[in-house]
Automatic annotation (TrEMBL):
Residues 23-135 form the SHSP domain. Belongs to the small heat shock protein (HSP20) family. This is Heat-shock protein Hsp20. It comes from the Bacteria.
Amino acid sequence: MLMRTDPFREFDRITRELTAPGTWSRPTAMPMDACREGDTYVVSFDLPGVDPEAIEIDIERNMLTVKAERRPAGNAEHVRMEVAERPLGVFSRQLVLADTLDTEQVRADYDAGVLTLRIPIAERAKRRRVKIEQGESHRQITG
């Protein structure tokens, strides 16, 4: 079967997807960093200009979902935008959390346009030392 493709049409489609504002049904990805600090995972999302009331954080089973919406700044009638380069619309990111994380103790902070989530490692998953005991069978043999 012969298929004819137009590389310029595909390039236009990709450009539209990257530059179009995100919607609730098709959100745009948001940049993030993740690291481990001791017994806690720290995940930071860049959300400059987003009202904290427009951020949703949900955990269902082991799926963490962060959604946020950035709306246009000046909605006044007499405002005429000269330059509009900041992306608007809906942003979303989903992370699959390991079973070793305590999803009941997640903390969220929002400061200076950065949403930071702190997810502790569950107690049952933390490293612990096992004490070796001498059993009765060991004492009988060496007896």
